[in-house]
Design goal:
The complex is a heterodimer of chains A (367) and B (564). Chain A is α+β, with helices and mostly antiparallel strands and 367 residues long. Chain A is built from eight helices and 20 strands. Chain A has helices at residues 46-54, 96-106, 111-124, 140-152, 170-187, 198-204, 222-227, 232-237; strands spanning 8-17, 20-30, 35-39, 61-66, 69-70, 83-84, 158-162, 190-195, 207-212, 215-220, 242-248, 258-264, 267-273, 286-291, 297-298, 306-318, 322-329, 332-339, 351-357, 362-364. Chain B has two domains: 1-30 and 335-564, Orthogonal Bundle (MetI-like fold); 42-101 and 144-302, Orthogonal Bundle (MetI-like fold), CATH 1.10.3720. Chain B has a two-stranded antiparallel sheet with strand order 1-2. In chain B, strands 3-4 form a two-stranded parallel sheet. The chains are: A alpha+beta (367), B mainly alpha (564). The interface between A and B is medium-sized, with 32 and 27 residues.
Chain lengths: 367, 564
């Protein structure tokens, strides 16, 4: 499918609550059929943005386009973008069937068709046989499925999800995550998914926005943002990050990609500037260098293109398939993630050589 | 859990007090209604449904109560919606003012109402002056029941309003947002989600209003309507020893009230299980009204208030008006009646009686109410649910029933002692005031105790305070504001208690304010004006009391008047 008209386009949306600026000139576009994530810590404005998409809040400035049409002035009930509420918002006075049928009744769908579509969607989310139950007779996972069914039964173009997994226990979360993914693939609808949980976003998102303090901090695919974050916030927020303050060395090709010499507390290193995101470098300039823990490994035979240093193992934490190693070198504390099978010789207090490849030594702006 | 003797002593005292002054009179009423010298009989109860006079009284009482309930919904529902869902300038003040109509017993406003709508009253005169009518029009004479319904509606709608605001506020905002989000227009959301979820609270409030208006004595009495149950009961007090018919009527009223109260409790407990589903999502932001909307809201609230306070205003005018007959407003003004209201023997005795009685009742209530709430919330003694239900029972027992029961059982059992209301009703008056307002006190204390974490008390005990010292040094200071608010309410309502006062106080030296007002209304020599002046004194006292209690209780004020 070509990306001619975005399913959702947000242009310069700003929202204030009293003196607090919840959203500050936010713009992005969501392509049709995307599973798009709004990720950020609590209070970053992501839920406000979702509520603005649903029409439950009115932006102070900016416009929203659904499929190319400006819908900023449409009241919530005319938007056709059903939402999965964080606390489910299942009506306690209606049973499962009536909860799911609610939107169809509002759309004046014929009674026979309603029955058919409700039965279909309940089967699809694995709730057949529970149609007569009241919401308080359902488990958390079942309530979650009813909320999904209530949105999907409308065959909407867009589905909004507000922290849908936050009320579930760990095992159920993984199950529902897969379920949402398969529902998304089966329906091909545009999903906008708000969460503070990077695991949800990294594992599910086609593309995502990382938000901080009412602004967009980064936009891209999970892989992009994980390995080539444009700024410190994004690097820190997604996964674990070793961030080292370094200085750009001599003979730099200013502001271009490729290998760069760095003066670090751990010696002279080679780093990589990611072309579109990287800071323009001048000699002597301070930058940040990002090393993901899984890229930091013990070195047995020194090879070209490897930045190496001596470090003392301060602690070992077993995670199951991997072990997190805390390292100390030149006054810095670093974290490395090593496969458990490769960690057997590591001992607390032992000194050895560690290394990271130059292509995995990512430079980002210091601020 | 281990209980000390003190706890059981307290439980014992409370049970004995409630047993003697609440359960025994009720049981006595039922026994006398069903047993005579010959043994068990349903003759007197059957009379309610076979004797044409009694049938008419029962039907009229039901009709009045039903009309009052319906019209209260009409008034309270829009008000409650505006206050629960919208914000506009001056909202806090308005919502306080809406409680004002409760402050005067409707039978006093009935006096004012008569001045406005009677044949020689203000409206009639105004119509003649404007040339709309040829002669005096008797607005109330044509439909006397209409006056009763109107007055009781304007008096009771705040109770329904408070219940409704609470019910609307309890609805999780996301339930309404979800409906909007799935395509329901705001009107449809109200019909399909808001109203069904608020319905238990609405019905519970309606039941309360129904019970209150079904058992209201003063208003029909002043309007001279004799064929309603409360007035018939009032008139049968004189022949209480000889005619069990009165007992049967009281028993019937009691059954209706208790059943109604039980239904409303059931409804509310169901709504509570509904409200606790899932966790409440983020707080509701009230939508500010547009300029036009604000004007509409002001017109609505102002109109209701004006109508509700019109009789009060008229009472005020009566209290300062020299002569008010066939004129729109009084001919001249004087402060004379305020002085007379304080100086004549009848009124001064009544004021002092009421003050003393209300004070005693309040002290009793604070002790009993705190004791009960503490036993239920903190000690959780076995059967605390029953204790709580027993303490709430007076909400369902009309004053009429209690007063009638007191005369029946105490006059016979302790003749010519201080417990014989015909000999000296003071003790029983104070006790009946206390019993009737006990639920409000228990609620206020209950709310306070639930707000204050029990860890404060545990810490005090841990540091060596005995249970009594814990209560004295930690609990009481922490919930003092709640107890004060509850106490003020008890005091204010006791000052203007109607049915107990009218029935129990038989001789002039024991008259409380309300009985004095009732007697003065028909009195000679500007009796009406003096009665009004007395009413204004009481109104000022009560109004100040309610506003003070409301400011102490804040948003929890509404809980005091809820059904369960």
């Amino acid at each position: 499918m070509s990306c001619s008209v975005p399913a959702i386009e947000v242009r310069g949306v700003t929202k204030r609550f009293g003196k607090v600026t919840a959203l500050d000139g936010v713009s992005f576009a969501v392509q049709p059929g995307e599973l798009f994530f709004l990720l950020g810590p609590s209070g970053c404005g992501k839920t406000t943005l979702l509520r603005i998409l649903a029409g439950l809040e009115t932006p102070d400035a900016g416009t929203i386009l659904f499929n190319g049409k400006d819908i900023a002035t449409l009241p919530p009930h005319e938007r056709g973008a059903p939402m999965v509420f964080q606390n489910y918002a299942l009506w306690p006075h209606l049973n499962v069937r009536d909860n799911v049928a609610f939107g169809l009744v509002e759309r004046k769908v014929a009674r026979g068709e309603i029955a058919q579509r409700v039965a279909d969607v309940l089967r699809r989310v694995g709730l057949e046989g529970l149609a007569e139950r009241m919401p308080n007779q359902l488990s958390g996972g079942q309530q979650q499925r009813v909320v999904l069914a209530r949105a999907l039964v409308l065959n909407p173009a867009i589905v909004l999800l507000d922290e849908p997994l936050s009320n579930l226990d760990a095992k159920l979360r993984v199950e529902m995550r897969e379920e949402i993914e398969s529902l998304h693939q089966a329906t091909g609808l545009t999903f906008v998914y708000v969460t503070h949980d990077q695991a949800d976003a990294l594992s599910l998102a086609d593309r995502m926005v990382v938000m901080a303090a009412g602004r967009i901090s980064a936009l891209g695919t999970p892989l992009d943002l994980y390995y080539r974050p444009p700024n410190r916030f994004c690097a820190d927020f997604l996964g674990e990050a070793n961030l080292i303050e370094v200085t750009a060395g001599n003979g730099m090709p200013a502001g271009t990609g490729g290998g760069v010499t760095l003066r670090t507390p751990l010696g002279l290193w080679q780093g990589t500037v990611v072309a579109e995101n990287g800071p323009p470098l001048t000699e002597g300039q301070g930058v940040l260098c990002l090393i993901r823990p899984e890229n930091l490994q013990p070195v047995r035979d020194h090879r070209e293109g490897l930045n190496v240093f001596e470090a003392e193992v301060r602690g070992l934490r077993m995670n199951g398939p991997t072990v997190t190693v805390t390292l100390s070198a030149a006054g810095l504390t670093l974290r490395a993630t090593v496969l458990t099978q490769d960690s057997l010789e590591l001992r607390k207090g032992s000194r050895m050589t560690w290394g990271v490849q130059a292509k995995n030594t990512i430079l980002i702006a210091a601020t | 859990m281990k209980f000390r003797y003190g706890t059981w002593l307290l439980v014992g005292l409370i049970v004995v007090a409630l047993g003697a002054f609440l359960l025994w009179p009720m049981a006595h009423v039922f026994t006398r209604a069903c047993w005579d010298q010959a043994g068990f009989t349903t003759l007197y109860l059957r009379g309610l449904f076979t004797n044409p006079v009694q049938v008419e009284a029962v039907l009229t009482s039901f009709l009045i109560a039903a009309c009052v309930t319906v019209s209260c919904v009409g008034v309270a529902l829009p008000l409650a919606w505006v206050f629960a869902r919208r914000s506009f300038p001056g909202k806090a003040v308005w919502s306080g003012l809406l409680l004002l109509p409760m402050i005067l017993p409707p039978f006093v406003s009935a006096v004012g109402m008569k001045m406005i709508f009677a044949r020689a009253g203000a409206l009639s005169t105004l119509c003649m002056n404007l040339g709309l009518a040829d002669g005096p029009v008797d607005w109330l004479g044509a439909f006397p029941l209409l006056g009763v319904v109107l007055l009781e509606t304007l008096h009771l709608f705040p109770i329904l309003y408070l219940n409704l605001v609470a019910a609307l506020a309890n609805i999780d905002p996301s339930l309404e947002e979800a409906a909007l989000n799935l395509g329901a227009s705001p009107g449809r959301v109200f019909r399909r989600v808001t109203l069904p979820l608020a319905r238990p609270g609405l019905f519970a409030g309606m039941v309360l209003v129904f019970i209150w208006s079904f058992t209201e004595l003063g208003t029909p009495l002043v309007f001279g309507i004799r064929n309603v149950l409360p007035v018939m009961i009032y008139n049968s007090v004189a022949e209480i020893g000889t005619n069990p018919g009165g007992y049967a009527q009281v028993a019937f009223v009691l059954v209706v009230s208790v059943v109604g109260f039980w239904i409303s409790k059931q409804l509310l407990s169901r709504s509570r299980s509904v409200a606790t589903l899932g966790r409440l999502s983020s707080g509701r932001r009230e939508v500010p009204l547009t300029r036009g909307g604000t004007v509409l809201a002001y017109v609505l609230i102002g109109g209701v208030l004006l109508l509700a306070l019109l009789p009060h205003l008229s009472v005020l005018l009566l209290s300062i008006g020299r002569r008010w007959f066939l004129t729109v407003l009084p001919d001249g003004y004087t402060l004379e009646f305020f002085g007379r209201a304080l100086n004549s023997d009848l009124t001064r005795t009544a004021l002092l009686n009421s003050l003393a009685l209300s004070l005693c009742a309040t002290v009793l209530d604070v002790l009993l109410g705190f004791g009960i709430a503490w036993l239920c919330v903190r000690r959780r003694v076995a059967g605390s649910d029953w204790l709580d239900a027993l303490a709430m029972l007076p909400l369902a027992v009309p004053g009429l029933v209690i007063a009638f029961g007191y005369i029946g059982c105490f006059s016979g059992t302790f003749p010519n002692t201080l417990l014989d209301p015909r000999f000296n009703p003071m003790i029983l008056l104070a006790v009946s005031y206390a019993i009737r307002r006990l639920p409000y006190m228990v609620r206020a204390a209950h709310a306070g105790l639930e707000q204050v974490s029990s860890t404060y008390e545990e810490a005090a005990a841990n540091l060596g305070a005995s249970p009594f010292r814990v209560v004295w040094r930690v609990t009481l200071p922490l919930i003092g504001a709640n107890l004060l608010a509850g106490g003020i309410l008890c005091f204010s309502f006791s000052m203007l208690e109607v049915s107990d006062s009218l029935i129990l106080a038989q001789t002039e030296q024991f008259y409380p304010i309300t009985k004095a007002i009732y007697v003065l209304i028909d009195g000679l020599e500007n009796g009406l004006n003096v009665a009004s002046a007395l009413g204004v004194w009481a109104m000022a006292l009560l109004g100040a009391g309610i506003l003070l209690a409301a400011s102490l209780m804040g948003k929890r004020m509404g809980q005091m008047f809820r059904a369960g």
